[in-house]
Amino acid sequence: MNCLFKYSLDNKLPIDLIYINNAGEVTYRTVIVRKITVEGILTFDIGKQQVRSFKLANILSAAKQRRKRGVNYAEII
Q1: Which residues have a Cβ under 8 Å from the Cβ of 70 and sit 6 or more positions away?
Q2: Do residues 19 and 27 make contact, with C-beta atoms less than 8 angstroms apart?
Q3: How large is the C-alpha radius of gyration of the chain?
Q4: What local confidence, expressed as pLDDT, does residue 65 receive?
Q5: Element (H, E) at 61
Q6: CA-CA distances (angstroms) from residue 13 to 34, 46, 71?
Q7: In sequence order, what are the beta bridge partners of 48?
Q8: Regarding beta strands 26-36 and 15-20, do their DSSP bridges make them parallel or antiparallel, or are they unpaired?
Q9: Tens digit of each residue's pLDDT (9 = 90 or more) over 22-64
Q10: How far is 9 from 4, CA to CA, in rounded Å?
Q11: What is the pTM of this model?
Q12: CB count, 10 Å around CB of 23?
């Protein structure tokens, strides 16, 4: 996961996180990493449009963003 955090930090590109908060709720976030620390990461959460911090121990999964933003046109047959 640290490689993905560094990728987002260096390239300023979003990554997808699956995170469990202290209340036990699992959330899906799209973030851009701003800072990496020993305990966690400081990010800009694209969905909430806010700076957020995440504990490394609570991050369940991280991946490069797969979906592309933009208009999807239907194919005419």
Answers
A1: none
A2: yes
A3: 14
A4: 82
A5: strand 59-64
A6: 10, 11, 20
A7: none
A8: antiparallel
A9: 899 999 999 999 999 999 999 999 999 999 999 999 999 999 9
A10: 9
A11: 0.79
A12: 5
pLDDT tens by residue, 64-77: 987 666 655 555 55
Joined tokens for residue 31 = 């973030």
Residues 6+ apart with CB under 8 A from 40: 53, 54, 55, 56
Q: What's the one-letter identity of residue 34?
A: R
| Residue for token pair 């966690």 | 40
Structure tokens at 51: 């700076």
Phi, psi angles (nearest 5°) of residue 6: -65, -40
SS3 45: strand
